[in-house]
Known about the structure:
4-stranded antiparallel β-sheet, 10% helix, mainly beta, 5 helices, 419 residues, Neuraminidase
Amino acid sequence: APARRPHRSAPGPPQPAPPPAPRRHLTSPRMAAEDEAELSLLECRVCFERYGPDGQRRPRNLPCGHVLCQGCLGALGGPERRGLECPFCRRARGSAETSDCLPLLQLLEVLGPAGGSVPSALGRRSGGGGADGPAPAGLGLGLRLALGGWGSLVNPTGVAACRRSGRLAVAHDGKKRIHVFGPSGSCLQRFGERGDAGNDIKYPLDVTVTPDGHVVVTDGGDRSVKAFDFEGRGVLAVREGFCLPWGLDATPESEVILTDSEAGALYRLTADLKTGKLKKCQMIRSQLISPRGVAVSQTSGAIVVIEHLKAQGPNSGTTRVKIFSAEMDLVGQMDSFGLNLVFPSKIYTTAVAFDKEGRVIVTDVCSQAVICLGKPEEFPIFSPLISHGLSYPVGLTYAANNSLVVLDSGDHSVKIYSS
């Protein structure tokens, strides 16, 4: 039986814990994948106890899409049960907003009391990840491919595309924190072990891919930025006194633009990733309010940042989108209230990207949609790109063929749309 791991009493990014005793001798990549699925899918990511259909081990959904057991939900909510903060993404919400995680409950029912083969119960298909074929999505966009799903990706937090090769890198909370998918949807590589080594990834928050072919990850576990090649070899770890590095995006010159959510700052990292040498870590903007998502225009060099504004009361925070020129002059901004004047619904943006025409594209978890806000000079307009088929979109990027890639934390998948 696996060794029991201690319960965490305080919310925050998961910290490395002693590994469980080996469940079986791993002799093939397929067996390794099965072991990772059992470890990541059927255990609560707070207390590491196995989920069950009833009582304290019953899996519960938070509105942000993360899952934990009923016992940890009660512990994190405190004695008055007025509200709680997600231990993974730190969003506040009311305790009454949780719900049963039906996919996990159905999987537990399939496995039965004695357990069983997780991969066979999941019925995973190579590459397809649960896609049922093209679906209408708005403005000519249709779902072309879905990747990942339960047992493959666990609480994914970031997605990035390599424009040169078409590969996709996804950061998530599995045993190996980075999954690399090929253009056809096949899984090419998994790397980024959780652990105590310098290049191990404790808790990934976002990921980007530089034009020279390196995968760069923000690690909230040890407050660092780590770079890897596509084979998973760590080439650089930057710890420049960051408070909580969060979102990041690569420039055409292979520099990295980085947000520090707790410091309220924006950084530019310049490094020679082939030799693993950091050249400069420069703060280019300060006095931001909890900046997280960030994107860089590949044509103009403009930078767009999502600020998360706190308000009184549980689950009452809002977001603000700020656009800066390449010289870091403020071009425009729009908060949730201002967007409500354009669109009569609360908008809470979680991810942002530029399309090839330089338009700002954002995800909205309230309407479960992807929205175009227009170019910086016309910002903001309101044009929905994807209006249904998403659960909790948290990541956004464009692939080499101009396909729109959306990371959906609600069903732990990557969805690729094309016209």
